[in-house]
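Q: Two folds, back to back.
A: First:
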Amino acid sequence: MENVRRASHAGSWYSSNSQTLEAELDGWLRECGLPKSPDVRGVIAPHAGYSYSGRAAAFAFGNIDPTNITRIFLLGPSHHHYTPRCALSKAKIYKTPVGDLTIDLQVIEELKATGKFDMMDIEVDEAEHSMEMHLPYLAKVFRGHAVKVVPIMVGAVSTESEAMYGKLLAKYIDDPKNFFSVSSDFCHWGSRFNYTCYDKKHGAIHKSIEALDKMGMEIIETGDPDEFKNYLLETDNTICGRHPISVFLHMSKNCSTKIKIKFLRYEQSSHCKSMRDSSVSYASAAAKAE
């Protein structure tokens, strides 16, 4: 079983019961009411427990037309394992309660051959939730279509490395059969996250957080990785998937396909009103080929 990555967060972060999970995903996808578009080539979506971010995530995954896609690149941050590089999975199968996903071993070997990637053990892979939280949605949306997945855990990479990985992966955007699922939550606010930035001119704390996040979202929509980096340096906004987002922005910048990112949903886990409160923000975007 060492080649199989279990759905290690099922039963805690989301339901391990296939029928319950199926009904939840169906409900959220139906509620968001988004048209499926073959132009959607990627998404940015949250990765919290589904009771917090499942509904918001539907606004990313609800856009996808799976018809012509055969490969999904999945980019997520590392929360527990330190590496200054990107890491590839050793698994052959990623399990989910609503269907399993096959890993694209050919592309894994291709990337491994560059010498720029670590290989992560199954234990490291299973401990990380950022990519797993995208899997049930991907398994659901792409059901019945022959797709393979290329999971890439993006470590604590430097600005230079973000640009290097972006250039290295850019060619994959130019193949319209490839799709990109980028995993990130937005502001983690509160003393437990060591982040309590509050600009009173916006009114309540949650409004200040929203203004901060939306400034970042607008910069991501410009597609400029340098502007996004400047924003992070100036605000210190605790966007946990900042490295995967930056790599994706560099990919978009270095490919010949014009990619336009548009955010479609923004939510907060709760509305902070006092300095004792805490919240996490969730934002969902679609990246379209123009």
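A: Second:
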Amino acid sequence: MMHSVNPAHTAPTTQTSSKEERSAHIAVFTFPLFILIGAVIAFLKPDPFAPLSEYISMMISIIMLCMGLTLTLPDFSLVIRRPLPIIIGVLAQFIIMPVGAVAVAKLLGLNPMLAIGLLMLGSVPGGTTSNVVAYLSRGDVALSVTMTSVSTILSPLVTPIIMLTLAGEETPVNGATMAWSLVQTVLLPVIGGLIIRVVFDRLVTALLPILPWLSVLAIGGVVFPAVAKSSESLKHVGLIVILAVILHNLIGYVLGYLSAKLFKFSVPVARTTSIEVATQSAGLASGMSGKLWSPEAAIPGAVAAVWHNISGALFAFIVRRIDAAKGTPATKANHPETPIAS
């Protein structure tokens, strides 16, 4: 869930800026490296990190505030101008990923806490890593930003409904508590960040370069204590959780792309939908699962915080190789006005 300077606001209309692309590459590769190293240290030496669990809600709020600060009102204009791909993308995300989580949990025989953590990962809104990956993958960046924003705003209502519907009898879900927690830690910070951006646009614009790194530190503040508090469990379930997260993520990429092509959307829009469906707000999932259930339930989200960035970089590499093989020029791929249908 990397919060980079919003590519939709800066992406060129005729050719890819090498400086912006280099910055995006750094964001995608540096973030998982930092989280991976920190998670390994927290696993080996959990005692210094475990007390940080008291601040997880605050860290999630900081992440969401940073997201809100990167948004502008024009980000939401696409809801009016191009509603169909947004509706399809958000519906696909909130259907494919939760159902995929249940299927993977049953396939691999995950215990109830790991299963609920994977379901939470599938039920939270999209992560803004997707915006950077869409940029690198020559997708429709403006559409990516809008999909992420819409799914985030809907999450306090939709996520508890999904969890109540699919969690099963083995794991109790308090829908009201979850909804209120999402309002406090997600909705209010995002809306607050957006208001601050509107009122103090010049100041926030000057601060945009530091927001990605503030978000990275906050995500570390969510993931590291989750790993520390579940270090013993990780010794026994680490490999199966990694496999579960990878399969779940792959389901999102494949079915997300197919759902867009079913409506005959263009390749950039299909790529964007694929990325949006597959890339979840892993830090949020980890933090909420640890808070509402147990440290073990937070493990899938913690693993996904690393893997979703790695898979995003791999996806961008693969589609760029495909474009190169086909001789596809990088012209309108990142332009906000990319046509929907091919």
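Q: And?
A: The mean pLDDT is 83.
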